[in-house]
Amino acid sequence: MPPPPDFTSTTLFPSLSSIPLPSIPTVSIDASDLTFVEPPTLPKASDPNPAYYLLAEVKHNMTITKPTLICKDRDGVEFALTFNDEQLDLKARGLKKGNCVVVPNARLIPSEKEGGSGYVQVFKGEGEFVRGLPGGLEGVVRAGRRMREAQEGRCWVCAKREAEGEEQVRLRRCTGCGVVRYCSKECQTRDWSEGGHRGECKVMKGIREIWPDA
Ligand SMILES: [Zn+2]
Ligand SMILES: [Zn+2]
């Protein structure tokens, strides 16, 4: 199992202010050499290998006609995320208050006002590529870090390795997230009640659904 993406990477998960803007090709005006210039290709949410993702926490739903969410990015900046898909069911996609939203190749529409943060627009037909994660920003970043740590083949609680020493240790994965491993029912129960896995299990499952190779 390869590790999940590194949520602390500001290149892969930029804040709103560092979303790359599409570059517009420059046209040289020369009548003798008039060539057709392709319009800039904008990154799409549907791209199978997105260059980056906007990860933000949903603060509230502000839908009037177009589905619109007010979100907070990793720098604590609030912005609107609008979908040009009036039929999109935000709740069914896990896009509700307190959860995180993941927008592949998010497109920032810069503010016309000086100092404005701009907003993010998801074009028609791209809403289905925007996913929700069942936890806030802090919880998602922590779950991602713990998923990377869980790569090592040890019991998540007592650190016992498989087939160590005389005793046959068999590690079993949590069936909820399929990420963390335990040597025994005791270790699993302890992690669920005291270790905080109760809260992070569904977040880890959600991360694996978005990044299935994780
Ligand atoms: Zn154990
Ligand atoms: Zn789990």
TrEMBL record:
Gene Ontology MF annotations: zinc ion binding
Keyword Zinc belongs to the record: yes
SUPFAM superfamilies registered for this protein in UniProt: HIT/MYND zinc finger-like
Coiled coil stretches, renumbered: none
Alphabetical keyword list: Metal-binding, Zinc, Zinc-finger
Gene3D superfamilies reported in the protein's UniProt record: 6.10.140.2220
Record flagged with keyword ATP-binding: no
Occurrences of domain MYND-type (ranges): 155-201
InterPro entries, per database record: Znf_MYND (IPR002893)
Protein name per UniProt: MYND-type domain-containing protein
Record organism: Coniochaeta pulveracea
